[in-house]
Design brief:
Oligomer: heterotrimer
Radius of gyration of chain A: 30 Å
Helix content of chain A: 40-55%
Largest sheet of chain A: 5 strands, antiparallel
Shape of chain B: globular
Mean pLDDT of chain B: 83
Number of strands of chain A: 12
Structural class of chain B: alpha/beta
Number of helices of chain B: 13
Strand order of the largest sheet of chain A: 1-2-4-5-3
Order of helices and strands of chain B: HEEHEHEEHHEHHHEEEEHEEEHHHHE
Number of helices of chain A: 16
Shape of chain A: elongated
Strand content of chain B: 25-35%
Low-confidence stretches of chain A: 13-35
Chains: A alpha+beta, B alpha/beta, C mainly alpha
């Protein structure tokens, strides 16, 4: 796959350097208009400008008042719903309106007095441009305008409602932490910090998107991660130039190495323990505001088979479970194709008794095995999609209806053979046994392709399809690391944590594939400290 | 851009021509599975052979496994036809049946003794089965004493088809040593290529059923059937070739019989005299087993009694082996026992001197001296010691 | 900006070892027992295999040692400096032609055997075309990707061979292996010739050494890479003789596949194992074909630097396909194989050594440290 050339072509067509950051223009800003728009000296003018820029929004709340003995006109602007009104009342308005008795001579002194002595909120910032003011208002801060002042003060009063921390739905495990990320970026970064009290954990904050201005945080641990990796990823993230990245999925597919490959090149997860584990291995995590799914890169093929639960259970169980997952991946991809190949081309391979009984069972079935297989697989895909949209109470019933009744009825009517139903059921169960949903859906897609190959050439077709998939994986790169690491190139040390999960005592070093700068995880044995 | 786009699209669309493929796609219920073939010689036309094919009816199998012994649908049917060679025979049978014959599950080939006695017929027949890719080298061969087609019509007790029945009898050499071990077509191919005589399992119909006792002896040079061995002689042959996996040796003490069940068996051949004109072989039959049947008033735990019993068994073994040797050396003058092979493997120089005259010409094989000794060790005597202590 | 390159595109010694092993294991190993049984007596073929293997290992070691001298400049540049440029053109063109015909030979061989064991009515051309299209797909990727592919597929080959050999041991009769040491020297010599032809393939180390991280490890890696197919051929040969006996072995066309046909899994769970065995064997023939094609393109491009990767593939593909369909029957196909092997020994094994001598005499700059 010439992923590199395609990606570079893509970036040449669409990539720009930095996103624009002007709010005061309705159309695309030109370079000249990116010049800074300063605040007006009069409060009324500022308020007017803000109302204009926000198109007289109905949730924009303006509170004008006078402060102090000199009766300086001031005003606050904030968006209702984004701010914590109690905090504004108590910490902002009350000290300014009730107990302000400083004598102020200049606006500059007013600002500094307010900042240093009056406003008892935990974060204040001085802003000087209208763009900054609008940005802060839309971010949930309250902007305090002071008459005759060149600066305004932005006070952090964030108080919007967000979802409580719940167990992640797509990645539930038996044993281990049950906290999952939410849509709020600050909560997510806080959860990350809670897990890693590491001073070297760096969280770089960027605003991405032309109109959306979404906060994106790139997290990594200095001293472990390779510096070139961080540079590269940051470059890719900053090259995004579109209205809004609606979720981390959007970001993921923009910065991935190849958009033509069905395999997931970036891991997405809702679990903070997975993110912290990956950061300690020398990978980079990206958190996007408004989406509970964090991105981890670079990853390889082996990450699709691992689940964080493997580290919480005993190593023998983990090893066997990983082997089971490998088997499940194989079954989910190849079983229907094998069924077609064996029943259409290679009847000699089935043991005699089974062959005769299958032949007997298929006597009344009108469709050839190929059509049967495709029809059943497509029915199963329909059931799966339908099951996603149904509300919970009906969902269970439909599962039973679809699975049992339709299958039974089809067999009883003589339209499909019972063996086909078994094959389809086992395939479906195997694809659910994989821990990574994106990987499972890519296998789903490939399954149909391989079924087609088996329908044309039998076992020969299956092996050709297998080779093609191998070739594709082998040519795939993820941020400079071949996707098939550690299978090829063979890194012997990584195999301790690939299929076999060695006991923790033996996992002394960080995986070399991401080239960390510091590879020791544990104290060396004869280290006296 | 336009031009290459069109060319590329045309190129991809032309790959759709491949969809006319699936040349080999055949539904599994369109196959006529042939599980057994029986070959007889044609009475009218001596150069033809008559083949009987046993086809499986899968729906009949389903009904049989349902439990009720409903004979309204049998699990098999036989078709026969007559042609000059095996491949044209298979082609002709395809004209007679609804589903084309499919040999990938072939289990059994039965050749009648008339066919096997003639010229290189058996090699011709087996050529078809080995060269064609559909058959495996694990297909069993049996030589029938009588018409082969009758064997495919026997009443199969406990099995859905006669072929299954015969097949599973042929694997029973763990319980009996009156029959040869399974003769697979791969082994027969080896025999046909090697220069020595060989033996193949034999099948014969008896009252109400069939038996696989005995052996069919083939000449190593002309590859023709030259005769049969009886059950006892086959036991002796098995002793000498070392193919015993079980079975009973019966001896008599004071009028009643005692039986020895062989558990482990080995045979050793040594060449005593290396002069090519006076070869002398010493064959050692070493067996271990348990006492299967004893008689009253006999205490096997007593040392002298048990050694007496062992000696009786040894004598029986030697007698059986001697019978086989006599038949092969005197009546047939052919070495189906593996002595020639032993010479080839262990004493290659001597073999080079005698190989032209071993079974033909001077018939050196019929003149060699064969000394047989046996050793029967009674490892266990069973659950009980003495059955009764009656005083006569 | 292309893509981010902080990963390592260089190849390690283990990769070269596996590459050489994977290139050697092709259709030759399937037929080798029969070829040996035809010329040697009893089970003495193992002596021929060992001698041939030793010769091949020495040759691979020497070739790799020579290759270390041009691990940065490439084979063509070195040759052009050692002997004059026109001669270098001829030599490299011959080498390219050798790899081209090797690729065609493998394609035709696999199509023949597939037609016999897997298909009934599908035409040989269609099978070969399907196979060839996937080969083209792989060759149009990166060279490092091809090396990684070898690494991914080698465990399957050894695994399935091990399974087939283990399950065949029940049918092995040790007495069929006797008598020992009865063949004459001339017979052993023709056995060595047959074995050498099936052990050709280590010359790819000449062309892949430019990708190595530490070229000085190449000789040892190449020698070990040749040792693996030797062990495998030896094991297959001995088991074949034991199972079929030398008399029947001469008559069986593809002994290794027939072994898989004969083997019985306890419980009779799977009956005709040769389909699985052969299907997995296709993977190793596939890697051999890819490497042959890739080497051909590499040598051509090292001579004519202006040709790009994809146009070279488009130009060569019809030639290879036409060449693979050229032999009409079994005999001419076998002759084609013989000619290619002679060409290989001449151009790929002996010629580099001669060039090395010339280079030493002329004092060409070498890349070895």
């Amino acid at each position: 796959m010439k992923a590199r050339e395609i990606s570079s072509m893509f970036k040449q067509l669409f990539g720009r350097s930095s996103p624009s950051r002007s709010y005061t223009n309705k159309s695309n800003p030109t370079a000249a208009e990116l010049s800074v728009q300063h605040l007006y000296p009069l409060v009324q003018d500022n308020l007017e400008a803000i109302k204009q820029a926000l198109h007289h929004a109905s949730d924009l709340v303006i509170r004008s008042f006078s402060v102090g003995p000199s009766q300086t006109p001031c005003a606050t602007a904030s968006i209702d719903g984004l701010v914590d009104t109690a905090q504004i009342n108590e910490q902002l308005l009350k000290p300014m309106m009730h107990s302000f008795d400083y004598l102020i001579s200049s606006a500059e002194e007013m600002c500094s007095v307010l900042e240093e002595q009056v406003l008892s909120t935990y974060q204040v910032k001085r802003i000087a441009t209208l763009d900054d003011a609008i940005y802060n208002i839309l971010s949930g801060n309250t902007v305090l305008f002071i008459d005759e002042s060149t600066d305004a003060i932005a006070v952090t009063t964030i108080g919007w409602k967000s979802r409580a921390i719940e167990e992640p739905q797509t990645e539930s495990i038996i044993r281990g932490p049950r906290a999952g990320f939410t849509e709020d970026l600050r909560t997510n970064t806080a959860m990350l910090r809670r897990r890693l009290k590491e001073p070297n954990l760096v969280l770089d904050d960027y605003q991405i998107g032309r109109r959306g201005k979404r906060d994106v945080v790139i997290a990594y641990i200095v001293g472990i991660v390779h510096p070139n990796l961080v540079k590269e990823i940051t470059k890719r993230v900053l090259s995004i130039d579109i209205d809004d990245i609606e979720g981390s999925g959007f970001l993921e597919h923009w910065i991935a190495d190849s958009f033509l490959s069905p395999f997931p090149l970036i891991l997405n997860t809702e679990r903070p323990d997975r993110v912290s584990g990956s950061l300690l291995q020398g990978r980079v995590a990206i958190l996007v505001d408004g989406d509970p799914f964090a991105l981890i890169l670079p990853i390889t093929f082996s990450s699709s088979l691992q689940s964080p639960e493997d580290y919480y259970q005993h190593w023998m169980i983990s090893t066997l479970t990983r082997l089971l997952r490998l088997g499940a991946a194989f079954i989910a991809t190849f079983l229907p194709a094998l069924y077609i190949a064996l029943l259409e081309y290679h009847h000699g391979m089935i043991p005699s008794k089974l062959a005769f009984s299958i032949a007997g069972a298929r006597e009344g079935v009108p469709f050839p095995a190929v059509i049967e297989a495709f029809a059943m697989e497509i029915t199963l895909e329909l059931l799966r999609e339908a099951g996603l949209r149904l509300p919970k109470p009906i969902g269970q019933t439909i599962g039973i209806v679809g699975g049992l009744v339709i299958g039974e009825a089809a067999v009883a009517a003589g339209m499909v053979s019972p063996v086909m139903v078994i094959v389809v059921a086992i395939t479906a169960i195997s694809s659910f046994a994989l821990p990574s949903y994106s990987f499972a859906i890519s296998l789903r897609m490939m399954r149909f392709g391989i079924m087609l190959a088996a329908a044309f050439f039998g076992l020969f077709g299956i092996i050709l399809a297998y080779i093609m998939i191998n070739v594709h994986i082998v040519n795939l790169m993820c941020c400079g690391i071949p996707y098939s690491t550690p299978f090829a190139p063979l890194l012997k040390q990584e195999w301790k944590d690939l299929v076999l999960r060695a006991p923790t005592i033996f996992l002394k070093k960080r995986p070399k594939m991401v080239k960390p700068q510091n590879t020791d995880r544990m104290k060396k044995e004869n280290d006296p400290s | 851009m336009r031009c290459s786009f069109i060319i590329r699209t045309l190129g991809i669309l032309s790959c759709l021509l491949l969809t006319t493929s699936c040349w080999d796609r055949v539904e599994i219920d369109q196959r006529g599975f042939v599980v057994g073939v029986a070959i007889d010689s044609d009475e009218q036309n001596k150069s033809n052979q008559k083949g009987t094919y046993q086809f499986v009816v899968p729906a009949g199998l389903k009904q049989n496994s349902g439990g009720a012994s409903d004979t309204s649908q049998k699990a098999y049917f036989n078709l026969s036809s007559s042609e000059q060679s095996m491949s044209s025979l298979a082609g002709k049978v395809a004209n007679l049946t609804s589903r084309s014959p499919y040999f990938e599950h072939l289990k059994l080939v039965i050749i009648s003794n008339e066919v096997a006695q003639n010229g290189s017929r058996i090699a011709d027949i087996l050529d078809f089965f080995l060269r064609n890719n559909e058959m495996r080298r694990g297909v069993q061969i049996l030589i029938s004493d009588g018409k082969a087609a009758d064997m495919l019509q026997i009443r199969a007790n406990n099995e859905p088809m006669p072929v299954d029945y015969i097949n599973s009898i042929a694997k029973n050499n763990m319980k009996t040593n009156f029959m040869l071990p399974q003769s697979r077509i791969g082994d027969v191919h080896e025999y046909l290529v090697k220069p020595w005589s060989f033996a193949i399992q034999k099948i014969k119909s008896e009252e109400g059923g069939i038996t696989l006792q005995g052996a069919a002896i083939f000449d190593g040079n002309s590859k023709n059937l030259i005769g049969f061995l009886s059950g006892q002689e086959t036991q002796g042959l098995n002793f000498i070739t070392g193919d015993i996996k079980g079975g009973i040796v019966e001896a008599k003490i004071d009028g009643s019989s005692i039986d020895y069940l062989i558990k482990q068996y080995k045979r050793k051949i040594t060449l005593e005299n290396t002069d090519p004109s006076h070869l002398k072989f010493h064959i050692q039959l070493l067996s271990e087993g348990t006492l299967d049947k004893s008689k009253a008033n006999l205490d096997p735990t007593d040392a002298s009694t048990s050694s007496e019993i062992e000696k009786k068994f040894e004598k029986e073994m030697v007698d059986a082996a001697k019978k086989a040797v006599k038949k092969l050396q005197q009546s047939y003058k052919k070495d189906a026992m593996g002595l020639g092979a032993y010479l080839y493997q262990d004493h290659y120089q001597i073999w080079k001197k005698v190989q032209d005259n071993w079974e033909q010409g001077q018939h050196i094989f019929s003149q060699v001296e064969i000394e047989i000794a046996a050793s029967a060790i009674l490892r266990r005597i069973g659950n009980i010691n003495e059955i009764s202590k009656a005083k006569e | 900006m292309k893509y981010f390159e902080y990963g390592d595109p260089k190849v390690s010694a283990l990769d070269i070892c596996v590459t050489v092993a994977s290139m050697i294991i092709g259709v030759g190993v399937l037929n080798l027992p029969r070829e040996l049984a035809k010329v040697t007596k009893s089970s003495d073929g193992w002596i021929s295999i060992l001698i041939a293997g030793l010769l091949a290992m020495i040759a691979a070691f020497l070739l790799a040692k020579i290759a270390v001298h041009f691990s940065k400049q490439g084979y063509f540049a070195y040759t052009a400096a050692a002997v004059t440029k026109p001669v270098a053109y001829v030599i490299t063109l011959l080498l390219s032609f050798y790899f081209l015909s090797y690729c065609s030979y493998e394609i035709r061989a696999i199509a023949n055997i597939s037609k016999q064991y897997l298909f009934e009515r599908t035409p040989v051309e269609v099978i070969a075309l399907g196979f060839f299209l996937v080969v083209i797909y792989a060759v149009s990727g990166s060279r490092a990707g091809i090396i990684r592919l070898n690494l991914l597929t080698i465990p399957f080959i050894f695994g399935i061979t091990f399974v087939v050999l283990s399950f065949s041991l029940t049918k092995l009769s040790v007495v069929d292996l006797k008598p020992c040491f009865i063949s004459s020297i001339t017979e052993l010599a023709s056995g060595v010739k047959a074995s050498i032809f099936s052990l050709l393939g280590f010359e790819v180390v000449l062309l892949y050494i430019t990708m190595m991280h530490k070229p000085q490890l190449a000789p040892k890696a190449a020698a070990i890479g040749v040792a693996l197919p030797i062990i495998m051929s030896l094991a297959i040969y001995i088991v074949c003789v034991g199972v079929f006996s030398e008399f029947a072995l001469q008559e069986v066309s593809n002994p290794a596949v027939e072994l898989a046909k004969e083997m019985q899994i306890p419980g009779e769970f799977f009956e005709r194992f040769e389909s699985i065995f052969f299907t997995i064997w296709i993977v190793t023939v596939y890697t051999t074909t890819i490497m042959a094609f890739d080497c051909c393109i590499y040598t051509l491009r090292s001579m004519f630097k202006k040709i790009k990767h994809m146009p070279a593939i488009y130009m060569l593909s019809p030639i290879i396909f036409w060449l693979s369909m050229f032999p009409r029957d079994v005999n001419s196909f076998a002759k084609m194989g013989d000619y290619i092997s002679y060409l290989g020994v001449g151009i790929a094994v002996i010629t580099p050594m001669i060039i090395y001598l010339f280079a030493k005499i002329r004092g060409v700059k070498s890349d070895a440290l």
